[in-house]
Model the fold of this input.
Amino acid sequence: MGITRAQCWFQGTSGLPEDRYVNDLYVSTTGTFDFANAADFRDAWANFFNDSSHKVADYLSDNISRSSDAAKINFYDVPGPGSPIEVASWTPAAIGSVQSLPHELACAVSYHGDLSGVPETAANPSPPPAVIRPASRRRGRFYVGPLNIACLGTESFDVRVNTTFIGILRDAMNELVTDLDAADMTLGVWSPTDGDFYPIDGGWIDNGFDIQRRRGSVASVRTSL
Done:
């Protein structure tokens, strides 16, 4: 079994390297990851955002470039570092709303491998630290964002992610897993600590925004007191 890291990123409209929004996903293949696998992954990932039945792209910020082939994916062998073994590009669909939220705001798609009989905490057989967290090693997530106001909902005057967007993300995630399975790739969690790969066994999307501080925009105005 081969494990591959797919480094998926959107380019910000500034075109600057520091203005990129990056997620790492991991897939296993029965053979060597090749050009055909890269093309299939690209199509499945683009479909996650662009498919008309669950158009996640409608909820993305206008700070994400919609230029042709602006979104990139670099593929790397796991566990080793090194240069990409394959690269791919795709074009995010046109924006649904032009009123963007702060770049730090994202919605997390969380998932996990089989947790049956896996404890949340356990004594470390070779401390330090004294306690290890085996279940955490089987959990992963990626962040959808930055976002626009179409994702906003309210709950007792507390701003949350609306249920429509959560449903769209759920459907898109289920289709992503199905599309990759059909292409003989399995999406899952890579644990460097365990040196093992855990296929997705479940997951969730909640209605709380996640804050990605490294994605925040630099202030353009400073007003003295």
Observations:
- DSSP finds two helices and 14 strands in the chain.
